[in-house]
Amino acid sequence: MDLSRKLVSIIGTGKLGSAVALQVASREIADLRLIDIIKGLPQGEALDLGQMTAEQGADVDIIGSNEYKDLSGSDLVVVIGGLGRKPGMTRLDLQDKNEEIIRGIAEKIVEYAPKSLILMVTNPVDVMTYLTWRVSGFDASRVFGQSGMLDTMRFKYFISRALGVSTSSIQAVVIGEHGDSMVPLPRFSTLNGVPITDLLSPGQVAEIVERTRKTAAEVIALKGATIYAPAHGIARMIESVIKDKRMALCMTARLNGEYGVHDVYVDVPAVLGARGVDRVIELKLNDEERAAFLKSVDVVKTAASQLKSVKAS
Ligand code: 2OP
What we know:
Blueprint: E1 7-11, H1 15-26, E2 31-35, H2 41-56, E3 62-65, E4 76-79, H3 95-112, E5 117-120, H4 125-136, E6 143-145, H5 148-163, E7 170-171, E8 174-175, E9 183-184, E10 190-191, E11 194-195, H6 202-223, H7 228-242, E12 247-256, E13 262-273, E14 276-280, H8 287-305
Helix pairs in contact: 1-2, 1-7, 3-4, 4-8, 5-6, 5-7
Bound molecules: (2S)-2-hydroxypropanoic acid.
């Protein structure tokens, strides 16, 4: 029996990265390496979180470092580095600045953790995941991004409030770009199997869909950044990988023929386990849903074609 614990590295230990580390440690999912270029920050987070585990009795080792060589031995590297959105910015506004940072990080992962999987969080996440896949040369199953997990959490939250029921009774699906063109799918979103389109008026559904698309900007305008919702979504994805739970989640995965789409990373439902993306689940979209999805795919493809360091098809 293999008794060794798994190792998750988090690159970028600002507010979101440290909130993810808190969840991974509290849930005793894996040992942690926290990597950041800011001197002292990851070391301080590691010490603080390590001391926290003494109250919980959680057995995880947490080490902070300013050196990429400490990625060595990682089973999964979570990339949160780069710039975040400021009030009024779209995710795509970050592309130019984050491209250089993420390309450099991808190269370090290949150098020091060539066997790891990569979970991308940095925005625009669909394009940054594509970039990382191309730069790393890893199989596409090993490179994926967080997006749909968070978007479905938000969709669930608004549906649950409109129906007056627990979020635990709601299943929700969001596909497409993690951005303004995202496609929440009301027909596939249910209260224990009953589509919300049977339970809410078209006006209520439209309002919830729009709020789901815009709510990250809403939170950023109010408190400067989104932290707890993304951190929990990311922790759930980490758990599915590290414990090989094979959860079916909405996430940024590469399409190579699925949905009739090729060579793009975009949000779709997929099965996530110890080897990464096991398979993409194809939903039977109607004409309207397919048109919205393809339009959103085009937004991502156009953005990817503007990357400077790789040529997207
Ligand atoms: C979010 O959706 C900003 O992409 C980040 O919370």
